[in-house]
Amino acid sequence: MDPAPTAEPQIPRSISREDMAKLAIRRYEGRVCLVAAPGDLEEARADLRQEAIVGLDTETRPAFKKGESHLPALVQVATARAVYLFQLRRTEVFPVLAELLSEPRIVKAGVSLKDDLRALKQVFAFEEKNMLDLGWVARSNGFGQTGVRNLAGILLGLRIPKGTKTSNWAARDLSAAQIAYAATDAWACRELYLRFQSLGLLAAKAPGDAAPGG
């Protein structure tokens, strides 16, 4: 078997704050579906079932006091056609998310997935299959930075704004800024998977295997 390819020399393994600041800000500009009505849920289920790769991320209400913690409030899933936002206060979304996370045919790509999955299991039950941690892929190929924003700067040449990271994700009504932020993170994870794939950097581990969390 040939050795796994390493990152091409012309691809930087890290990006400085100065270089990141020079990049154009980019947000997801496609269709976003905040899953609220039964029709939204059926659309999401049908779209997810025909996907081979989705970007996955979660958002949790920030904790500002020592010892305070919260469960995830939002799950974002990016397909080739849309980004679906599932508010976890809506228990009707649990079966669709559990089906996705347990589906061995669909690659779920994200960063720090181990932490996300551990927290999600406190909200609803599932057995995860075919998860791919992009931070692990980056580390395996010699990248010194493994967060979504740094990887997007290095590999996609774009800057993702941080603006609403510490906002209240448990709010009943999400703001337009929150929706854009959440959708962009999931979309970026899917784009990063496709970029790693095009560069031949997924060969270090078969996409069907679960990579360790980051």
Structural features, described:
It is a single chain. This protein has a 6-stranded mixed β-sheet with strand order 1-4-3-2-5-6, with helices on both faces. Helix 6 crosses helix 7. With 214 residues, the protein is α/β, with parallel strands linked by helices. The protein has helices at residues 17-22, 38-49, 94-102, 113-120, 134-140, 148-156, 176-198, and strands at residues 31-34, 53-60, 72-78, 82-87, 107-110, 131-133. Residues 206-214 have low confidence and may be disordered. The protein is built from 7 helices and 6 strands.
Strand content: 5-15%
State the end-to-end CA separation.
Answer: 27 Å
Kindly state the percentage of residues in helix: 25-40%
The rounded Rg comes to 17 Å
Shape: globular
Low-confidence stretches: 206-214
Major sheet description = 6 strands, mixed
Briefly characterize the structure:
With 214 residues, the protein is an alpha/beta fold.
Key traits:
single chain, 214 residues, alpha/beta, 6-stranded mixed β-sheet, 6 strands, disordered C terminus
Topology:
Elements: H1 17-22, E1 31-34, H2 38-49, E2 53-60, E3 72-78, E4 82-87, H3 94-102, E5 107-110, H4 113-120, E6 131-133, H5 134-140, H6 148-156, H7 176-198
Parallel strand pairs: 1-4, 2-5, 5-6
Antiparallel strand pairs: 2-3, 3-4
Helix pairs in contact: 6-7
